[in-house]
Protein 1
Amino acid sequence: MANAFSYACRDCDGMEACPASVVAQTKNEVWKLMELHAQVAHDENPAEWDGETREYLATLIRPVNV
C-alpha cells in the first residue's frame, strides 16, 4: 500500500526535458511543491491555472511507496 505521493514534471505535456520531481506524504503537500516549482522553474503563476489544467495535473500525482 502506498504511503506517499509523487509528481514528475517531465510527465506533463511540454515539460519532458524538466528533471524536477517531488515526493511528499500527502497530495496537498505535493500540490504546494508543484506550484512552487512552476513559479521558480517555469515562471508560471499557479493562481492562473484553470480547472481543466488542475484536473490534468491531478492525474499526474501518483501514489508511491517510500
Protein 2
Amino acid sequence: MSPPANTDLGYTPPDGGWGWAVVFGASISVGFAYSFPKAFTVYFKELRMVFNVSYSQIAWVTSIMCATTYGGGPISSILVNRFGSRPVVIFGGLLCGIGMILAAFCTSILQLYICVGVVSGFGLALNLQPSVIIIGKYFLKRRPIANGLAMAGSPVMLSTLAPLNQFLFDNFGWRGSFFILGAILLNCCVAGALFRPIGMAADPVRKPTIKQAEKTVKEQTNKSSVEMLSPKTVSSLSGTEDEEDKDCCEKFNKYLDFSLFKHRGFLIYLIGNVLMFLGFFAPIVFLAPYAKHLGIDEYSAAFLLSILAIVDMIARPTTGIIANSKWVRPKIQYFFSFSIAFNGACHLLCPLATGYTGLVIYSVFFGLAFGMVCAMLFETLMDLVGAARFTSAVGLVTIVECCTILLGPPIGGTLIDTFGDYKYMFIKCGAVMVLAGTFLFIMNYYNYRMLAKEERERKATEETMKDHKHIRTETEDGNIWAKEKMQDGPEVEPLTDEREGLKKEVNGKSEV
C-alpha cells in the first residue's frame, strides 16, 4: 500500500478498534441521507394525482430535500467543530423524524416542500457531513476502505426502503407511510450515539476580555487612590480589543476555511462536481416512473431500484479496496474521473432499453457506476485537502453543489413534460456527466504535472539553500582563521624581537 498522506490532526488515528463501530453508525446515517430521497420517488405517482401537479412540480420535493441536505453543509460543519459529531447527528435524526411525521398531515404541495424538503432535508444534512468527517478522524491508512464500507450503507438502505415504501403505501396509504417513515428515521439518533469523540482534548486558552481588564484596573484604583493609570495599562486595554476582533476572525476561519478557494486541486474538484450533479440524481429519481411509463407493474418498477442498490452495495466496498491499492491510490483522481464518465455513458445508452430486461441490464451497470462515484466522492476530496481541512472543505463544497442538485431533477422533469418522453432526460444527464468526467481527467492531469513541478522546484531550492549555507560556513570559517592569524602576527613578532635584544645584551655583558 502506498504511504498515507501526512496528517496534522495532533494524534495518530487508530485505524480500527471502535472505529469499525463508527463505520457501522456512519453507514446508517449516510444510508438514510442518500437513499431516502431516491426511495421517496415511489410516492410520486400518487402524490401527483392527490395534489394535481406536474412531474416537474413533484420532482421539486426531492430536489429541495437534496439541495437542503447539501446546502446545510456549512452549518453542519460549524456545529461539528463546535459540539462534535455525536450531538449533531442525534439532533439531525430528530429533525428527520419530525419532518416526516408533519408531512403526514400536509394538504398542499407547498407544505410538502417545507416538511419533507426543508425540515427532513436539513436533518439529513446533520447526518451526512458528521458521519463522513468522523471517519477521517478514526482512519488514515485504511481510510478508503472505511469510506467505501460507510458509503455502502446507501444501497443497503435503498434496497430495503424501495420495496418497504411500496408495501407501506399499499397497506397504509401515503399518509400512514409517512408517519411510519418518521419513526424509522429516528434510528439516526441511535447511529449518532456510536460516534464516540476522538482526538486531542485541549481546551482553548481563555484570553481576558475588556470588561475583565477594566474590572482589574478598577480594583487596583480602589486599593490605592494615589496610583493612576499608566500608558502601559491603556495600551494593554486597546491591545485586548484588537485581540478580540482577531479571535473572532480566527474562529470563523477555523470553522470555514475560505483559503481553500485558493487551493488549485480543491477548485478543480469543485467545478467538476458542480457540473456532475446536474445529471447525477435525476436518472435515479425517474427510473421507477420511467418503468411505469413503459407499462411495467409497480412492484417490478420498484424492484429495479433494489437491483441497482444490490449492485451498488457490492460496488462501493470493492471500489474502496481497489482505491486503497498501491497502484490506484497515488492517482485516485483519475479513477474518480473515469467513474463519472462511465456513469454518463450508462445514461446515454439507457434509451435503448425499451423492455424490462433492458432496464434490468441498465440498472446493473448504473448501480456499478453509481457505487464507484459515491465510494470515492469524499475520499478524493480528503486526498486533495488533507484530513485537517476536510471539515471546512465538505461544508464549502456542499453549499456550492446544492444549486445544481436543486436544478437537476426539475430540469429532467421539464424535459419529460415538454417532449412527453424520458429519453431526452437520460441523454441530457449522460452528456453532462461525460463532460464532467472528461474535464476532471484533463485538469487532474494538469494538477499532477504542476504538483510534480512544484516538488522538483522545492527540492532544488532546498539543495541550493543547503549549498549556500555550506559555502557561507566555509567562508565564515576562513574569515575567522584569517582574523586570528592577523591578530596573532603582531603579538608574535614583538616577542621575538624582545628575546633577540635580551640575547644580544647578555652576549655583550659576557664579552665585557
Protein 3
Amino acid sequence: MKIDIVAVGKLKEKYLQQGIEEYLKRLSPYTKVHIAEVADEKAPDNMSDANMQEVKRKEGERILSHISKDSYVITLEINGKMLTSETFADKLDKLATYGKSKITFVIGGSVGISEDVQKRSDMALSFSKMTFPHQMFRMILLEQVYRAFRIMRGEPYHK
C-alpha cells in the first residue's frame, strides 16, 4: 500500500515536524507515505462567501494536481463519516484487498475543501465534530494510520 497525504499550508512548527517524523518512521515497515504540501491562499479575516469560494477553488486546483488518477481519495471533512479505529483499519484493509493500494488523504485549508475536490473524493472522513488546526491534523492522521496498520496485523497498541 502507498499512502499520499496532500495538505494545504506549510508546516512550520518544529514540535509537529518531529511528531510527524516519528510516525513516518513507525509506519515505514508497513507502507510508504508521501506528504505533499500545497500553498494556502491568503485569506482576509472578514471574507465574503465569494472570497471564500475563490480561496477554496484555488487551493482545490493545487490539491487536485497532486492526486493521481488511480488513487482512492479520502477527504478529511468535519461532516464526513466517523469511524472507530477498528473500522478505519478494516476499511484500509478492504481497500488493499480489492486492489486500491494507492490512497490519498486530503487535508484542506482553513476555509475547507473545494467542491471539485469533494467531487473527486471517494470517501469523506471525519475524526470528530470538533475543528482541529490543519497543521496538527497531519500528525493525528498519521497516528491513526499507524494504529490501523497495527490493528490489521494483530499487533499490540495501546487503547
